Amino acid sequence: MSNAAVTAATSSRATAADKSALARLGEAFVGRLVILIPYLWLVFFFLVPFVIVFKISLSQTAIAIPPYTPVLGFGDGLAGFFAQLNELSIDNYTWLTQDALYVNAYVTSVIVAAISTVLTLLVGYPIAYGMARAPAMLRPTLLMLVILPFWTSFLIRVYAWIGILKPEGLLNQLLLATGVVSQPLIILNTYTAIFIGIVYSYLPFMVLPLYSSLEKMDYSLIEAAKDLGCPPTSAFWKITFPLSLPGVIAGCLLVFIPAVGEFVIPDLLGGSQTLMIGKTLWNEFFANRDWPVSSAVAVILLLLLIVPIMLFQRAQARAQEQDK
Amino acid sequence: MKSLGSIRRDFAPWNDPNAKPYIQFDKVTKKFGDFTAVNNLSLTIFEREFFALLGASGCGKSTLLRMLAGFEEPTAGRILLDGQDLRGIPPYRRPVNMMFQSYALFPHMTVENNIAFGLKQDGMPKPEIAARVGEMLKLVKLEQFAKRKPHQLSGGQRQRVALARSVAKRPKVLLLDEPLGALDKKLREETQFELMDLQQSLGLTFVVVTHDQEEAMTMADRIAIIDKGEVMQVATPAEVYEAPGSRFVAGFVGNVNMFEGKIAHGEAGAASIDAGNGITIRTEHAGDAATGAAVAFAIRPEKIRISSTRPAGAVNAIEGEVYDIAYLGDMTVYHVRLDDGQVVRASTMNAARITEDPLSWNDRAWVSFRPDAGVVLTR
User: Fold this and answer.
1) pTM of the prediction?
2) Can you give the residue ranges of the ABC transmembrane type-1 domain (chain A) (predicted)?
């Protein structure tokens, strides 16, 4: 984002060179304003809520409204405010490390999300590849088909999978009728059902970035590889796949991040046997009404996701810098 | 008329009836749906030849190259390379390499790895690959750029990498698709000569596709002029220019003045052409046209003399009016409107710094040419 800001600023400076000072000032102001909007958005809708959640995570649960203490305020003056700050503690975080339930839930969530991401990639890559190689006339239609499921409520689509996967559901009826199995398969309320749900729901997030990186790839590169003696499969691994890596990474992040915290799919398809952090968070918040602990769970989840992404982005930026 | 040979005097296998053809297009047709890109085309290319396929865009020349590389299969007909029918052989098993118009350098690999790509595919031992890559880098003078990525190079350097990559495997035939199309004029001229030197030193057969006639004329031993998927003429650059086989070829290669008319009187090696409006052209080149045949008389601008008075003893001289003069530095181009309205283009080399016979707009002028200066075209 800062890169874009710099280019925007330089280009506006260059074009404004021969304009009046007033017009230049106005343009600079508009330029700043445009950059300001996303920052303000992030501050109000990400940073402020995060600070609130973080503060709650340091509080203690209480039978009150709101259900935690202390509630920060200036009712007792500045001294009272600082006294309230002193009551904050990291007890909830220590608690999370002591109870195996939370650690297990985190680890399971990351593993489930990772497996789902790989599965989504395996399903999504051929789709994106096929779309990118389809005749140019057909591509907008195919793109539309990928986006089409979003027009139906996410919840309804996940519910629909219950009807397909349950023991007497459509899938089992089909398999029994065709004689593939003699006993109905137990898929619902297992991790398999969660994988199916996540792969199905998040597929467009994988396909779209993959498609955009595959589509802009010059097909003559593949021809050049073949021309130099490379059979098609080998050309795919040596040329197509490495060049689509930015799309692969973007798609994987777009699937992995929301999948780790996913609540609806494990709840509806995974049943009570499966343990994932999104469900744990929901239980802590709504069943136990323990706002501080659930806030701590949320903060840890965020760190768990953000830290690797930031490290990755820094590594990528450094690699790009070296390339120049 | 004297024979018009190739520039390499000792190299003319196409005149040798015993020479073995190296690449043969045998009645090749290629259709894309309803569109016929190549129509029943036959062509023979010899070993170590620098062969140019010249034509306007969409004439089918690139399709010919792509069929040779194996990216397209002919709808009908055969393509033979060194006696072997290429049908069904995939591009990665053909002993030909191609230099792509877009260069198609692998953006995620260094210059070195781009050049080594084909060698690694062949399973060449590592030390040999390193040696060959080093040799190729030296050949294209890019030694110090070995570790760079393509996007860190200039257009000319990229072109050299593409060239090095395509010759690294020592293919039997190198195919070049508009190899100089993306370079600016100066660089293009330099590179033309470098390509010729490279072809000579490596002893490879080059087939180049180009829409630039100057490029084809400069580099090629022979040129095939392609139009609408058919070969119009295959000949040395000098032949194509001085003895074009048809009105199309005469008009396509270089500038030409064309007089349509009828053979009024023909005899061995000479004819007079009645070009209408009282213009009679006497020529020593009548081809095989019979008396009364409708022909075109084609003459290049540099073979026409322009003067303010009728030159004494001129066989062919026509009067007109100067209506445009373009001074190009090395030469001046005059457009003379004849009394029947036809415009004749005449160019004069500016051998002296000050012209002795200055003509100006709207001056009456005479255009004259020798009887052996033009050609008679029947097609």
Assistant:
1) 0.78
2) 106-312
